[in-house]
Amino acid sequence: MQLFFHKDIQDSTIILSPEESKHLAKVLRKSVGDEVHLTDGLGNLYTCKITEINQKKTILSIIEKESTPADPFHIHLAIAPTKNTDRIEWMLEKITEIGFHELSLLKTDHSERSFLKTERLEKKMISACKQSLKTRVPIINPLRTFSDLIQSTQESDTQKFIAYVDENNQNLLFDLAEKKKSYLVLIGPEGDFSEEEIKLAFDNGFKACSLGHSRLRTETAGLAAVHTLSLKNFQ
């Protein structure tokens, strides 16, 4: 099944973007009367029939709408962007394929990058959702300071974890996480979190977690955290 994407579906007729239209017409060679599947990224799967098609514009008529249930858990990854944007984009693509729900970009004491275009990251997530046939596009939050994020979680019932370099910490994230919970995992930059940031996290209910015995790069740690929590809930 090929999955297409369109935001804000309000009625029974959908006009696809030129990008999606070109793929349908030129690459897949679809024609009037063919059926296609489409999502709005909000958990809905639409079966549609093509009523008009060319490389610049495709009109679809909705035949059927199916709502897919939300996961009984919520994975929120808060991570400091890498200096090389390709690395964080690669991670985002992979964790979207695996399955997560929310991303926050962190500005930390040792951050390598203080600005990142969320519009480009959202496009990467949409593309990964289409490839992996997911009907829910994760939430992406603008860059915020470490302390701002920590303060916003003070009264949360979320399981809160911070992953940082500590060779004495043997508490694996997989063992600490409970099934069917809301999770928030903090991943720092290549220079790691500062001592002040780690203390602030502990003071606000975060637990230190290990992602294994290897020292991981930022994007690898983000991928490992999401995969671990996903595996915990689907084992």
What are the SSEs and their pairings?
Elements: E1 3-5, E2 13-16, H1 18-27, E3 35-39, E4 44-53, E5 58-67, E6 74-79, H2 85-98, E7 102-107, H3 118-131, E8 139-145, H4 146-151, E9 159-163, H5 173-176, E10 182-187, H6 195-203, E11 207-209, H7 218-234
Parallel strand pairs: 1-3, 6-7, 6-10, 7-8, 9-10, 9-11
Antiparallel strand pairs: 2-5, 3-4, 4-5
Comma- or semicolon-separated keywords:
235 residues, alpha/beta, 6-stranded parallel beta sheet, 5-stranded mixed beta sheet, 11 strands
Question: Could you please describe the fold and organization of this structure?
Answer:
This protein has about 240 residues and is of the alpha/beta class. It is built from seven helices and eleven strands. It has helices spanning about 20-25, 85-100, 120-130, 145-150, 175, 195-205, 220-235, and strands at about 5, 15, 35-40, 45-55, 60-65, 75-80, 100-105, 140-145, 160-165, 180-185, 205-210. A six-stranded parallel beta sheet has the order 8-7-6-10-9-11, sandwiched between helices. Strands 1-3-4-5-2 form a five-stranded mixed beta sheet. Helix 2 links the parallel strand 6 and strand 7. Helix 2 (about 85-100) packs parallel to helix 7 (about 220-235). The model has no long low-confidence stretch (mean pLDDT about 95).
Low-confidence stretches: none
**Share of residues in helices:** 25-40%
**Apparent shape:** elongated
Tell me the total number of β-strands.
Answer: 11
Report, as a whole number of angstroms, the end-to-end distance. Answer: 26 Å
Radius of gyration: 20 Å
Largest sheet: 6 strands, parallel
Spatial strand arrangement across the major sheet: 8-7-6-10-9-11
Please work out how many helical segments DSSP would assign. Answer: 7
